[in-house]
Give the backbone structure.
Amino acid sequence: MRLYDSITQLILTVLIAIIGALVITSCGTTPKLTDAQREALRELARDRIEERLEERNEPETEATSTPTPETAPEATEGEFPEGVKWLHPDVSAWPVTSDLSVSVGASRITLDYDKANVWPAREEAGATVNANPWVVAEINGKWYAGTWEWMRFGQTVKNRVINGGHVKRSPMDGDWEPERGQRIGIFVSGLIRGRTRNVSERTELFWVEWP
């Protein structure tokens, strides 16, 4: 019934338009159409009716959105990446008791934190140490965290040795080292690399671009 009404309304609209055009062009005289004009008008009416029928027969489709592909979680300032694998004991729950500023030079790394002279020193493998520096890096789409050195009491500068020869835990072992321009995280914690412990504290996580 609705379809019939729509077609009827369309035909009436076309007829009204035709009559109006005839009245205007005839200037008050009795309108007369040639056979060609009548056929053109009939073609126009048929075309419009067919268009309406096609529109009504088109299936309704719901708007859909293109799903966003899943990506690996990004690491943000001061936070550990989601799903990071700890190559040494997990210290992420240790309280952050010190800020940290890191600068990487041609041969040295400066880890400026205010607990260097506070955390108590312990003897480990013949050295007096009180902290371990960490590296957090993405390897083949996955994040890993591992310690790469020992730090003596009061020490804030280390040789630039963040590599597989110092972390020594797969996949941060062998010839692994950060790539130039790679964004890595660095932080310092109380002793965790060996058997000796002093404090269960750490610095904040600091992100740098490897030069």
Notes: Residues 53-76 have pLDDT under 50 and may be disordered. The radius of gyration is 39 Å.
